[in-house]
Structure formats: structure tokens, C-alpha cells
Design a protein that fits this description.
About 25% of the residues lie in helices and about 15% in strands. The protein is an alpha/beta fold.
Amino acid sequence: MATIYIDGKAHEVDPKKNLLQVGLSLGYDIPYFCWHPAMGSVGACRQCAVKVFQDENDTRGRIVMACMTPAADGTRVSIHDEEAVEFRASVIEWLMINHPHDCPICDEGGECHLQDMTLMAGHTYRRHRFNKRTYHNQYLGPFINHEMNRCIQCYRCVRFYQDLAGGRDLDVFGAHDNVYFGRHADGVFESEFSGNLVEVCPTGVFTDKTLKQHYTRKWDLQTAPSVCVHCGVGCNTIPGERYNLLRRILNRYNREVNGYFICDRGRFGYEFVNQESRIYAPIINRGNGAQAEVVAPDEALAHMRELIANGKKTIGIGSPRASLEGNFSLRELVGAENFFAGVSQAEHQLINLALKILQDGPARSASLHDVSAADAVFVLGEDLTNTAPMVAFSVRQAVRNQPMEIPEKLGIDLWNDYAVREAVQDIKGPLVIATPTQSKLDDIATETFRGTPQDLARLGFAVANSIDPESPKVGGMQGSTLQLVENITRALKSAKRPLIVSGTSCGSEAILQAAANVAWALNRNGSPAELSFTVPEPNSLGLAMMAADSLQSAFDAIQNEADSTVIILENDLYRRSETKFVDDFLRAAKNIIVVDHTKNATTDRANVVLPAATFSEGDGTLVNNEGRAQRFFQVFIQEHGHVQESWRWMRDLMVALGQKPAEEWHNLDDIAQSLAAVLPIFKQVPHIAPPEGFRMVDQKIPRKAHRATGRTANQAHLSVHEPKPPADLDAPFNFSMEGFKGKVPGVLLPRYWAPGWNSVQALNKFQSEVGGPLHDGDPGKRLIEPSDNASIEFYQQIPKAYQPTKERWLIVPLYHVFGSEELSSLAAGIKELSPQPYITINSEDAAEMQIEAGTEVEIEIGATSLRLPVHLDPTLPQRVAGLPKGLAEMPNISLPAWGSLNLGSG
């Protein structure tokens, strides 16, 4: 540690940090623009000027940029020196010369970092009287609005987009005092992380276009801490609502998970909450041609009680997109033996295998922060950008770690971003990507390998054997593949923090086993290797921890005992299995009860539909791919109909049936305690967030900002008297602006605001140090830790090498960040960027078949026939075809599978 003096006061600080970062961490207000804790320092804006003195006798000092000055031992600095204050005011005045006077109509107004820093720097009057510089604004797609006239040339946008996100279509054009930040031409941003520009930009150049469609000011939004529901990574978010409409998503900082950023699917997929296809009230379909009718909750419960009483048996089908509490309540209603996981047999086996590997093996499951800290990465089978975008983002940061030895040897501070990048140039740390086809991470990979799922698994098994001969040997490896195995082995064994990334998207158990063998071989040889498994949905791992059987077992149970009642929880079964099998299952069941928030093919077949709450309308717990249990909190009470959490519907039904302990489930804390008691694997769930009775100075925490407006006006057509805010039975929050205004535990932070800090940069005030954990720790608790006494037993079953044939094709699944996920695909912007169905084949195969890109071919996979246009991909193995998974227009097909392709008669 080093001792520095800020305006005469001594502080112990980390000498590896710069003066700006330590000053902000200590709570001092120092204005800045170009600096960002995730991007380091470049000294572009000159706004963070302070005065540094040589020693205690120096009265003159010199002005330096705090972001470019190390916090060396003995440094004496003044933030409030008159010359430093005057310098900062001058800088902001020059920055404001060409800035428009449009704060009242700017989407950033009220949460603008430029506004905050202008006031902090003391600039209050504009002396400039000449014409302002103006620019053309570009169309950048359905997510981002562009207003270039507000730019102050801080360079944050291009540094994030290019250096962190790996994008290439946003750049800076021009020179001197006439620079332009945008694309070479109008067009949709290519990066899956472009939405982060909304928070990275300190002004209103890049703003949320989806918010603009139903705009409201920050201080009028009702917010709460939440978790993204669009993949299995569990990024933390802050949803904002006003007038019963979810209006936007912001990133919520969690150092161990997503840090400062989220992907565009997580940021803009929220609009499914506002769709017309939402279910707001109970619906009964009495059959016999009668019209489905909307009924009151009591009538629906009475009808369900009658259906269950008249049926032979009641089974429950859970869901990986439903909360732990929802799935557990259904399990308690029907009994553990009658509760099924609601995923296909193949997915069930894959996720349970991943869970077993993480629970029983010695390799630790990696958080996103761990992924970004790795110094050698082996990706086996996952197209990360499309299946787990934020894992891909973290891998991009990981390849910078090993080359950091270069600036360290040169004595360059690692926060000095420009100098570090000059020293490192294009050198990347080891990253090997083995996938069926090309990925967007290939540009930073040191080596790539293309193969079928079985060939990918064989590569993994070979690497494990090369690291540790005790693991099984792979025969038939030769040539370039053997050399690749040696290169991967060398990179992983020499790394300080090797990481193996794999997952379920290839549909191959062998790939997961091979990934486990590699990590375990490294562990046996003394390396702290970690595993990162991607899973498809927000609670895939949590549902697997409940040890329920697959959907196929539910099908069998009903076929063996027809005239039963099936309760389906937040699950469209037509996305889980082939249409014929689901039709047969629902036809065999006498009564079908569905609890969901959005209409789908399964709700259309139900006798009773109950309106479930979305993530923004209820509270619950999700377990991400790391095994971290995280709480999401209700943002607003849905005023339409009778929406409530799934577990509350199950509780009410249990009460109607006279079952216990449902009568004791008064709130979320009660059911969490019951969950932990019945399933000890979830014993930490009651402790991942403060209970409902938690108070700060005898006060709850307000969901609304202290400047919230219109509370009386929005009810004026009903009464001039302001109604009493509804009570929150599940969390220590108020649905109002009343409550504790100071710092609250990080897990309960509903927004970032501090005096003088209205933008997202106010986050600095809530961290133990800037860039470090939140005060009181980051949200969530890990439920999975490696076994200290694990005896390593390598997986032995190695698949045979793929042998292409003329008669049939191997059809493998392909994923799209926009389109493959169920809920986000309902959002207008996501839908606009989702592809139409297609099939991809190798260019050489296409030439042999004498077809071109766009030609339609007939595909037969089992009993399913499709006619789709052809896309060409030279990186696909020969006689292998790729079919997109999850698109709304595509039937559910279990992949990989064998099939045939031909031109047909069209």
C-alpha cells in the first residue's frame, strides 16, 4: 500500500491504481469523461485535472490529469486548488461550445453524465456566440438512436465497441476538432453488445430507441433489482416501469457476473412483457365448441379443484424458465414422484451430466469474472456469441491477460490503456475454438477446429490424454489434428488460470465428458483449471437440482394412465418435443391446466389457463450456469387482470384442495424456507437476499426515485386523493418514493443515484472500490463448489470418428442470439433482426449438388419434412448441414440427427 495526501488528508491506497480511480474510490468528486473503470485511461478529455505538489514545501505545484497519474507513495494532490478548479471549468466550457441546448428534449436528460460533470466543474454560463458544428445522424438499427450533435469526443464509444466488444463497424472519422463517431454508412450495428453504448456514452449521442417509443424520465421510473431471463448466464439488470408499462432495461453491476455490461438480447428483449399476447386473467375452455371465457380467480380455482377430483392422477411439468419457487410449489402440489422437469430427454441428460460434473468433480465452475480472468481458454463445442453472449464477451477480455506480461516487464501501468495496447499490439493469449462451424470469436482465436460433435469430443479426449495419460487414449489421430492437440496441451499446461468452456448446444454428452476430462487432467497435474458450462435457460441448472425426470417420462406416465390432469408451468411443450408427441400427450390427458404469462401453442390446448407474472411482475430465484442462486424482485404490480407469481397460483390451488403446507406460504420468504427444508441443496436460497422484514432505520427501500412525479395526476380521472401504495409482502421495498434514501445492501440496489451523480456513473458510490465488489458484497450465492475429496474417474467412452456418406447428412443445430430464445423473440426489435428459416451446407457439397445460395432444398429428418433456402458455409464439415434452432417459424426437431437433402420437385 502507498500513502497519498489529498488536500492535506492522508490515505492508504493501492499504488497500482491511478489518482482518479483511488480518488473516486475514497468518495471524492472528480469530474471525468473519457475514463471508464472497465476501459482504463487514455487522457483524451483533460477533465480530471488536479494539482500535484512535489512535497509539503511545494506551494506552486503542477496540473496533471488524475487518470494518467499513478497513485505513488508520498503523492500530494489537491482537487480543490484554485488553478485546478479553473482549468476544469475551462475544459468543460470548450467541450460545451458545440453542444446543443437541448437538455429538456434530450433522452439522456436527468441522467446525463455531461450534465453532472458540467455542474461539478462549475461551468454555469455560455460565452460562445457563434454557430455550432452540426452533423448528420445515422440509422443504426432498431435498438440505438443516434444524435451526433451531442458528442464531446471522449472516445469511450469506439474504445468499448472495438477494444472490448470486438466490433468493427463503429469508428471515428475526421480529425482535429471535426470528428465523427458512427458507421461508414447507415445500417444496423453488427455487434451483439451495441446497446451498452447507451450507458457508456456520457452524453445523449447513443440512446435507447426502444425507450424512445414510450419515453419517460429516469426519476419517474419505478425500478427494482432483477436478473435477465434470456439465457442461462444470469446477468443482473435494472428494469424500469411507469404507468403499468415496462419501458427499459439497464445493466445492474455484479462484479462476479456481468460487471458493467449486458448483451443486446438481455437489454432489448424485455418488450415481450408488453405484448398483446400476454395473459392477464384466468381463462376456462369448457370444450364442446364453447367459447373460452375469462373468469374470476375463485371460479378458476373451483373449476380446477373439480377437474383434479375427477381425474385419475395429477402430474406437474415444470420449466427451466420458471423460478425455483414456482417449480417447487408445483412439485409440492403433485408430489415429487409426479413432478417432471419439462425438458426433452436429450436436454435432461445433458444438463444433469453438466450438473454432476460440476458437483462431483474437482474443477470449479467459473463465473463470468473468472472467465475474463483466464489466461488460456479452450472452447469445446459452443458458439458462445449466439448461445451465451456474455461468456463470449468475457472470453474477449481473457485473451488480453497473458500478453499483459509485456507491459508489466516494460514498467507500464496496466490502467494506462493506450500505452498497454501499444506495447501489446495484436498479440493474443491462447484461445482455441472447436465448433461445428465458424464463430464470431474466430477473429481472436489462436487456433480453430471444425468438426462434427463426435469429432469435437474426440479432440477434447485427445487433449485430456495428452495432459494426463491416465485418461483414455484416442486412436486414429494424425497430422494437423495431432499438432493441434499438442498446441492446446502446451497452452493449457503453461497457463496460470486455464479455462475449459463447453455446453449443451451441440446436443452431445461426449463433448461435456471430454471437457470434464480436460479440466480434471489439468487438476490432477496441479493446475487450477476451471469449467464454464453454458445452459440454455435462466433456471436450467436450478431445475436440474430438483432431480425430476424428463418430459418423455411425463409422456409415458400419461400414456400408461390416461384421463389424468396435467399442470404445465410456464412451458410451451411444442418447443420441447416434436408436434406429434405433444399432440398425443395432450390428447391422452383428460384435463390440461397451464400457468403462463404469454399465449403459445400449449396454452391454446388448455382447459384452464392461469395468468403468471413475468420477471418484472413478481419475485423469485434463478440459478445460473455457474450454480449461483440470484433473486429477482418485482418491479411493478400488473394492474390488468389477476396476474400473480406461479407459486402463488399453486399455493391457492393447494389451499383449495386442502393441502399443506401451502397455508403457511404467506410470502416468498416462507416458500424459500420450505424449499430449503425439503431440498437441502437449496439451503442457502433463504439467505441470498434480506427478508421482507428487513428495514433501514425502520424504513423500507423505495422503488421510485425521490423526484418521482405524477402520482396524483395518474389517478386524477378517478379521484383527486392520492391512493395508498400497495404493500409488498415479499421484499423490503415500497411501491412508492417513500422510504430510506441512504446506501442499501448491494443486492437491494434499485437504481444508482448519489448527490451530484444522476447518471449510471453514480455506481462508483456503491462499490467498495471503483471496479471492485459492491458494498456488502455482490448479489447471489454459489450453490455448487468443487469437491475437496473428489476422486477423479475419467470418462472412458470415446465416440467413433465421423465418416461422411453419400446417402445421408448429419444435421447439427445452429443458434442465433436474435431469434433462438423464446421470449426475447417476441420483442419487436429482436424480431426484426431474427433470421428466416434456412439450412446451411458446405460450399463444396453445394457445388457437387449443383446448387447455389438461396436455392430451396427439401430436408427430411425422421417424419419431419421441410423446404428451406440454402446458405453456404465453407467451414462446415462435408455432408454436415446446419439447421437453426428455436426460430418461431421452425418446428421443434431434436438435433443432431441424420437426414436427407435433395432438390425435390420445386
